[in-house]
Amino acid sequence: MSLSPRDKPRDNPLDHSGPDDSVILHTTDNGVSWITLNRPEVMNAIAPEQRECLISELIRASADPAVRAVVITATGAAFCAGADLRATPSSAMDPAIPGVSAASVASGRLPGDVARTIRRGAQRLIAAVLDCEKPVIAAVNGTAAGLGAHLALACDLVLAAESATFVEVFVRRGLVPDGGGAYLLPRLVGPQRAKELMFFGDALTAAEAERMGLVNRVVAGAGLAATARSWAERLATGPTRALALTKQLVNTSLDSDRTAAFAAEAAAQEINMTTEDAQEGVNSFLEHRSPVYRGR
């Protein structure tokens, strides 16, 4: 079976010098799903079609046993400039969203339209990252603004090129943050820092973002692909189900009291001990050898 352009492996998943008109590029290599935003001419601003492709790829990664880690990155000089506002007039009632008709768009906005669009659009995208059952790495190659910043910060691990910047751009447009920003940022940097970022909308350099705890590691631009590959392939050789359960425990911990968190931990342990990887981990310890995990 021949591979489509979206599935052909590349030596460097961050290098897309050849022509490709897909809004999302995709490869799977060594157990890693590489999902690449590909609208560099608009700084990878996310249009509805691109958003739906991203969500579909994340859902597919969750269900595919051959995928054991995910990397989200982008072509060009920017990671993602946020939602594509030029698409807003025609997508305030997004035809890609079930139950939305062209007639309802033409008739003008009604109370509830904006909230519905946010729930079914930006919030679905961020939820797809948070709920993905595989560890997700953001390889931020440039500017990450608005929804683009939240897309990166929703990932489990964030790598940033030295040239990357993070901008809570909403206040500059007189807007309220969307895409889960007011949920994500306080959990990463605390409420006061989150308010500072959202109230002023100042751009953070990659180094500043690392000091705040928004970024795991800053690397030279030329080393971003290699570092992302190294981290992702290391995760892809790990105990996949244990990582998924650990991600779930950490993501829900700040929304739970101690009783609920401890109950969730016990349930996760019960589930994980039924996996082949858990048995391999125990057996390898007893046999004084390195474990070989198979993601099962």
Topology:
Layout: E1 24-29, E2 32-37, H1 48-63, E3 69-74, E4 78-80, H2 88-91, H3 102-106, H4 113-120, H5 122-131, E5 136-140, E6 143-145, H6 147-153, E7 157-161, E8 165-167, H7 181-189, H8 191-200, E9 203-205, H9 206-212, E10 217-219, H10 224-236, H11 240-253, H12 258-272, H13 276-286
Parallel strand pairs: 2-3, 3-5, 4-6, 5-7, 6-8, 7-10
Antiparallel strand pairs: 1-2, 8-9
Helix pairs in contact: 1-5, 4-5, 7-8, 11-12
Query: Order of strands in the sheet with the most strands?
Result: 1-2-3-5-7-10
**Can you give the mean pLDDT?**
87
* Proportion of helical residues: 40-55%
What's the total number of strands? 10
Main sheet summary: 6 strands, mixed
| Subunit arrangement of the protein | single chain
Enumerate how many helices there are, as a single number.
13
Shape descriptor: globular
Q: Residue ranges: pLDDT <50 for 5 or more in a row?
A: 1-11, 89-106
Query: Structural class of the helices, strands and pairings?
Result: alpha/beta
Task: Describe the structure using short key phrases.
single chain, 296 residues, alpha/beta, six-stranded mixed β-sheet, 10 strands, 15% strand, globular
Structural summary, described in words:
Helix 11 runs antiparallel to helix 12. With 296 residues, the protein is α/β, with parallel strands linked by helices. It has 13 helices and 10 strands. It has a 6-stranded mixed β-sheet with strand order 1-2-3-5-7-10, with helices on both faces. The protein has helices at 48-63, 88-91, 102-106, 113-120, 122-131, 147-153, 181-189, 191-200, 206-212, 224-236, 240-253, 258-272, 276-286, and strands at residues 24-29, 32-37, 69-74, 78-80, 136-140, 143-145, 157-161, 165-167, 203-205, 217-219. The protein is globular.
